[in-house]
């Protein structure tokens, strides 16, 4: 049986690995072909992309492994192998010397287990793993890889015809791991783009920062960057270190920036006006996860069983109690604050356990906990709205970042805030199960997608603390200027520039504008040839949830979230066609992730399910 895997990134490789393992176990012959226009490892991690030699990952090397393990339900045969850190220490030096691309990364492997590698090095680990998978193939099966982009897909009797370059091939099964698609510009982006072309300005629409052409942005000229997420930190790095500037650490551990003179002057802002919180310095083992007390599967299941659904308020109350309890637990144990409540810890935590999080602030005040250490969601989510127009915003921002750095430096288990934020990462599987099992009503699902996603991103998706230290240094030397919340950008024809304002009085005109975000996940805007083909067949389409006379439409292409089978516009499963990952975000939750050992990682959970179905289907066909 012939199986096509479209996308040779982490998901595609994981499914390949599980298919081979299960085919060997069942003594079934399969022929797998992987397609990707980029190298094995895919677009994000491709070591051949020049900037992947310098842009860093957002996960420590010890928490990445491509080897499936027994934490995965029904994984099939597993084999032992090095995680990313172990590979770097044991095998990378010899492996990298074998190729010209690999040799460029030999200076990037002096890492501890809690360090963040450059992205291309992760791609090389994935390439090594792919070679290891090929060694598991029996004589009657095969794996091949074509560095080609699939242009079109069609049904041909019981098979799929895939068109690529000037060729085509038929397959019995297709799995798609497509990642972010290039997209058409939305209306606002098109206005900016047309204006830039007309007046000779620079407009960089949403795209992968590693692929953006920043060379035309002049030194010492203003550039507006809209967005303060992870893409912002990539652009920040590329426009500073990438232009020859250097960060130097002082004796006090702060960074100062030594400009090269080639940097533009950056004006950055977003809706909140805040960068993502720094990720706490790692204190966890590779497979170590926080075990919740309140936000448990049983408690959530009990809430659902009581009324048939769970409402968002009850969901968030449990999450809120969990994260705040962890905050106060860490606070009381912090040497800086360990005398706050003297010998009344047991009574304090007993009171917290007996009530909801909405009462925690009052209890904390009764125990004379300082106001700055009392959990306040408004201050966490809207801190940049607190300074008044007369306040020195730069000084406020430097102090805000200092506090974030100091807290994150206490670690992702022990820090009062970063340690509490980090548990969000450890309960993601619980949240995924809630969505997969349809716990929410439509109104509550809408609230979850709009409110909780935003909260989760701010507190749990942040960059390594080094990036926040770098941002602080760049603000201090006036290379980066932070704008207030609710940044608004418009064309300014009179001045032939872009004009940016916010809820603060400062404004700026600039001839350069960067959208610091990845392309939209809106299925209707996708313009890659394969995505267009899938849309034309009505195999990919926006997902509509309905309940009586209520409807909710989300941008994700529809799949069955438990089987990853594609569902067409008529609600029917497209037999033998599977898809997982980013095109289905919000059906599957938080799909932008690398495989982590020992925690039932979603990438191998998907791979185990998809490979099991394909192998079982092959067995049925052989019996018929």
From TrEMBL:
<dbReference type="InterPro" id="IPR038732">
    <property type="entry name" value="HpyO/CreE_NAD-binding"/>
</dbReference>
<dbReference type="InterPro" id="IPR052189">
    <property type="entry name" value="L-asp_N-monooxygenase_NS-form"/>
</dbReference>
<feature type="domain" description="FAD-dependent urate hydroxylase HpyO/Asp monooxygenase CreE-like FAD/NAD(P)-binding">
    <location>
        <begin position="4"/>
        <end position="180"/>
    </location>
</feature>
<protein>
    <submittedName>
        <fullName>FAD/NAD(P)-binding protein</fullName>
    </submittedName>
</protein>
<dbReference type="Pfam" id="PF13454">
    <property type="entry name" value="NAD_binding_9"/>
</dbReference>
<dbReference type="InterPro" id="IPR036188">
    <property type="entry name" value="FAD/NAD-bd_sf"/>
</dbReference>
């Amino acid at each position: 049986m012939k199986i096509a895997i479209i996308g040779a990134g982490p998901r595609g490789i994981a499914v390949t690995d599980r298919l081979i393992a299960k085919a060997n176990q069942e003594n079934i012959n399969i022929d797998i072909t992987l397609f990707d226009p980029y190298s094995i490892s895919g677009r994000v991690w491709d070591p051949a992309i020049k900037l992947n030699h310098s842009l860093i990952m957002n996960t420590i090397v010890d928490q990445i492994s491509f080897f499936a393990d027994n934490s995965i339900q029904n994984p099939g045969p597993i084999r032992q192998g090095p995680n990313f850190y172990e590979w770097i220490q044991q095998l990378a030096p010899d492996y990298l010397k074998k190729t010209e691309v690999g040799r460029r990364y030999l200076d990037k492997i002096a890492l501890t287990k809690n360090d963040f590698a450059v992205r291309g090095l992760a791609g090389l680990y994935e390439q090594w793993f792919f070679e290891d998978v090929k060694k598991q193939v029996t004589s009657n099966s095969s794996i091949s890889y074509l560095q080609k982009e699939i242009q079109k897909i069609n049904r041909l009797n019981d098979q799929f015809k895939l068109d690529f370059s000037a060729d085509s091939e038929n397959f019995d099964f297709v799995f798609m791991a497509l990642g972010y698609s290039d997209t058409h510009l939305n209306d606002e982006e098109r206005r900016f783009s047309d204006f830039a072309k007309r007046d000779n300005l620079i407009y960089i629409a949403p795209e992968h920062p590693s692929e953006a052409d920043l060379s035309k942005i002049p030194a010492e000229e203003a550039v507006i960057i809209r967005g303060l997420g992870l893409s912002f930190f990539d652009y920040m790095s590329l426009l500073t270190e990438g232009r020859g500037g250097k960060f130097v650490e002082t004796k006090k551990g702060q960074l100062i920036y030594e400009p090269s003179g080639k940097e533009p002057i950056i004006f950055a802002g977003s809706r909140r006006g805040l960068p993502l919180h720094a990720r706490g310095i790692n204190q966890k083992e590779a497979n170590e996860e926080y075990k919740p007390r309140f936000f448990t599967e049983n408690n959530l299941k009990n809430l659902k069983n009581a009324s048939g659904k769970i409402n968002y308020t009850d969901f968030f109350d449990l999450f809120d109690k969990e994260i705040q309890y962890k905050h106060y637990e860490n606070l009381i144990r912090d040497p800086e604050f360990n005398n706050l409540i003297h010998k009344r810890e047991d009574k304090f935590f007993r009171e917290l356990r007996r009530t909801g999080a909405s009462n925690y602030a009052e209890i904390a005040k009764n125990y004379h906990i300082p106001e700055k250490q009392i959990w306040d969601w408004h201050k966490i989510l809207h801190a940049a709205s607190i300074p008044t127009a007369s306040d020195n915003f730069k000084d406020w921002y430097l102090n805000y970042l200092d506090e974030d750095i100091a807290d994150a430096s206490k670690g992702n288990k022990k820090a009062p805030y970063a340690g509490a934020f980090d548990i969000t990462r450890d309960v993601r599987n619980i949240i995924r199960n809630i969505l997969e099992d349809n716990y929410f009503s439509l109104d509550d699902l809408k609230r979850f997608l709009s409110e909780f996603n935003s909260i989760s991103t701010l507190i749990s998706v942040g960059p390594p603390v080094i990036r926040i230290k770098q941002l602080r240094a760049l603000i201090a030397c006036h290379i980066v200027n932070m704008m207030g919340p609710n940044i608004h950008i418009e064309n300014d024809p009179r001045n032939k520039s872009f004009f940016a304002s916010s809820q603060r009085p400062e404004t700026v005109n600039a001839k350069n504008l960067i959208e610091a975000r990845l392309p939209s996940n809106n299925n209707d805007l996708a313009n890659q040839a394969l995505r267009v083909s899938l849309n034309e067949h009505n195999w990919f389409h926006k997902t509509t949830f309905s309940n009586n006379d209520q409807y909710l439409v989300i941008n994700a292409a529809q799949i069955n979230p438990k089987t990853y089978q594609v569902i067409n516009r008529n609600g029917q499963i497209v037999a033998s066609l599977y898809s997982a990952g980013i095109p289905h975000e919000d059906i599957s939750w938080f799909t932008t992730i690398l495989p982590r050992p020992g925690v039932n990682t979603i990438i191998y959970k998907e791979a185990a399910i998809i490979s099991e179905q394909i192998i079982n289907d092959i067995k049925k066909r052989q019996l018929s």
